[in-house]
Amino acid sequence: MQVTLNVKRYDPEAADPTACFEEFRIEAESHFTVLDGLIKVREEVDPSLAVRCSCRASICGSCAMRVNGHAALACKTKLSTSLHDGAVSVEPMGNQRVVKDLVTDASLFWGKIRAVEPFLQPKGPEPEEEYIASNDAMLNLITPMGCIMCGACVSDCTVLEVDKNFLGPAALAKAYRFVGDPRDEADADRLSTLNEYGGAWDCTRCYECVQVCPKGVAPMDRIMELREAIQRAGLPSTIGSRHVDSFARSVARSGWLDETLLAVESWGKFNVPKLMASAPVGIRALVRGKLPKGGPLHHKRPGAKNVERIFRRLEHAPSTLAAVASKSGSAHD
Amino acid sequence: MAAAHDKIKELKERYAKLPVAHKGAVYNTDLIFHIELGYMLDAAETICASGLVRKESRGAHYRRDIPQRNDEEWLRHTTAVLEDGAARIGTLPVTITEWQPEARVY
Amino acid sequence: MKYAFYPGCVARGGTPELYDSTIAVAAKLGIELDEIVGAACTGAGVLQEKGLKLGDTLNARTFALAERMGLTTILTICSTCQGVMSQANHRLLNDAAYLAEINEELKPEGLEYTGRVVVKHLVWVLVEEVGLDTLRPLVVNPLPSLKVAPFYGCYILRPSWALGLDENPGREFYLERIIEACGAEPVNFPGRTKCCGFPILLINEANSTAMVGNHTASAKEHGADAMVTPCPLCHLNLDGYQPKAAAQRGEKIGLPILHLPQLLGLAFGISPKELGLQKHIVSAKPVLEKASVRA
User: Fold this and answer.
1) Which of A16, A103, A291, B18 is paired with A155 by a 20 to 30 Å CA distance?
2) CA C108/CA A200 separation, integer angstroms
3) Could you give the CA distance from residue C102 to residue C280 in angstroms, rounded to a whole number?
4) Cα–Cα distances in Å, from C91 out to A206, A313, C99?
5) What is the pLDDT of residue B100?
């Protein structure tokens, strides 16, 4: 079949190094991946096309790029199912410096991975032989351990788009992998760092990383488990944890969310400058007649006592990570 | 195998005249593949030349004309040295420690 | 057509105009909305941070309440409610033991979720059940000069496997199709499926506001006169924090943000007042002018 690859080109050595799309028409086999198509372009049409790839079997993580606007491994994406009117668009990953054409600089990615200290930190005397973890204790870590460091999640992270200080999905999923490991005993330090700006609370829960991860790591789900672990660790409350608590209190009490109280409680009741700064938004809303249904007071919804009962039963029921992080069934027993 | 050896020699001659189409200094895969091809030809020649010299079959090295192992003459390492653009094949003795050589019988 | 209506917290609180415009548009379309009395918040992904089971139980309770009403399709008007409920339902329907465990929690209230509920956002119902052919004849006031940028909201699209996009890949473009059905012109822009920033508004306002600024400004650069969203949380941020975003960028933006039923309502000839268009922070007047409607 005849296909068109619209490839975003960038050559830092060109007289005008502005990135722009170039169209390549090739004859593709039905089994072709997007990477097969790009390799064919490189081998038969334009040897200057820069593409990074190695295993061609979605194991090495070298060929992450944006296909039709979303990050993917080019070798795991079928060309035939990526076509819109016979064409596919291929761009380098986002949020990272483009070296040339489809090749991005991985230093931002690795800097963030390094920042979470991605190695076991046991305490106490070394065991005679190796550190052993029970099979059960490690089951929950299979997903984050599947990470192949391709950078797809970092490419499409909507927070990194506006703030490069955010640790980002890959590094936070990696942090989770060690927080959840029964042999690691640096949880308190790790969680305390992740409780700060740039850590677990800065994720905006947009699911981009879950959607684009080629290995099912679901980094955002791991970040949510880190938040849970932070709350259970009894660390000093932050806006993030107060936000969750306030939200929970509101729903537990009345069955639904009280937005005003949420803002007040998240910022801290005594954070006068912040509350004053937000006042214009609230005042503008009132002036425009944005009165909640049923009046400005937050009423209980019918059945609220049943909601309250569910909260009493389940608010403190731990999810998987918390169960593992409690270090039951740990290495040393 | 002799035909393959000749073919590799011919490819090496052609390779010496092969230009690099793309001249860029940044992430130039055309240049990388050019360099890699040269090394691959050296490796291919080494495999071929040493296979021709080793007149026996052993492990993954299998010759249909000599299917038997010959420990008397060939319980030796093969060495290859690049000399005047071609592989010069030699041998070195093998030091046997814990594992004794055995016939592969599966 | 009768649906178990789940308006969500924000349509009842911060964006009452969404609630009102939904009721007005549903009446025109002959959609009967039977509100699920006593349904709790879905958890919006926030309660899920306290553990999945809490949120899944609250949502199973809502599904059970709908079943008790004799209805099996829940209609939502919020991308976030839709996403959180779809995911909860996905988990409950794929694990019988888990569903049984959660039903134990519902027993004291005499409820049981039998797994028959389908949760659908208004935008899906419009295209898949009402049908654009039914919708088009109701457009008495087509909006041919209006360029509208669709803003989907994360939770109605991702993860695609929990939101039926694998079976219905068209769902990724329904807003465009509805905009066209209203006689307006959809505008493509880089932010259309990205995050509005609302979930971190209270945690990192600068980042959240930067997202608002990026999306509204880029939609405008791509020629949009207005933006339409099926998510009231996106609306709260894109509309309410747009003035702050503009100040942060040091430039004017002024892009009116419409709730989906407001756009439909305008095309159906419903009065702007009834649709609550005067309740927005960013004035919707330019839209009314383009739509040749008096405020």
Assistant:
1) A16
2) 36
3) 40
4) 19, 20, 8
5) 87
pLDDT in tens, C119-147: 999 999 999 999 999 999 999 999 998 99
Q: Output C68 or A264, whichever has higher pLDDT.
A: C68
Q: Is the pLDDT reported for residue A142 higher than 50?
A: yes
Yes or no, beta carbons of C58 and A310 under 8 Å apart: yes
> How would residue A330 be classed by pLDDT, with cut points 50, 70 and 90?
very low
Residue A268: pLDDT above 70?
Answer: no
Q: For strand C147-150 and strand C118-121, is the pairing parallel, antiparallel, or unpaired?
A: unpaired
Instruction: Report the residue of A91, A314, A316, A326 to disrupt the C interface, i.e. the one with the largest count of C CBs within 10 Å.
Output: A314
At residue A67, φ and ψ (nearest 5 deg) are -110, 120
Per-residue pLDDT reduced to its tens digit, A272-325: 566 556 666 666 666 677 777 766 667 777 788 888 888 888 887 766 544 433
What CATH number is given to the structural domain containing A51? 3.10.20.30
Residue A99 sits in the same domain as residue A114: no
User: Minimal CA–CA distance to C44: which of A176, B27, A258?
Assistant: A258
- Three-state SS for C204? coil
Is there a single domain that holds both residue A97 and residue A36? yes
CB pairs under 8 A between A and C: 195
Shortest Cα–Cα distance, A12 to chain B (Å): 8
Query: Which residues of A fall within a CB distance of 8 Å from B34?
Result: none
pLDDT tens string C26-37: 999 999 999 999
Q: Residue-wise pLDDT tens for chain B (106 aa)?
A: 899 999 999 999 999 999 999 999 999 999 999 999 999 999 999 999 999 999 999 989 999 999 999 999 999 999 999 998 889 999 999 999 998 888 777 6
The domain boundary, picked from A209, A236, A263, lies at A236
Q: Compute the distance between CA of residue A35 and CA of residue A79 in angstroms, rounded to an integer.
A: 8
Kindly list the residues from chain B whose CB atom is less than 8 angstroms away from the CB atom of residue A96: none
Question: How does DSSP assign C74-142, residue by residue?
Answer: EEES-HHHHHHHHHHHHHHHT-HHHHHHHHHHHGGGT----S--EEEEHHHHIIIII-HHHHGGG-SS-
Q: Give the global pTM.
A: 0.88
CATH topology for B2-93 is: Methane Monooxygenase Hydroxylase; Chain G, domain 1 (1.20.58)
Helix axes C52-68, C79-93, angle to 10 degrees: 90
In angstroms, the separation between the Cα of residue C126 and the nearest Cα of chain A is 25
Residue A164 lies in a domain: yes
Range of the domain at A43: 2-104
Residue A329 confidence (pLDDT): 32
Q: For A47, which of B25, B26, B30 is closest by C-beta distance?
A: B30
Q: Least CB-CB distance to B22: which of A47, A52, A99?
A: A47
Give chains near A: 3+ CB pairs under 8 A: B, C
Residue A331 pLDDT: 33
Stronger pLDDT, C227 or B102, i.e. the higher one? C227
Tokens of A114: 């390094």
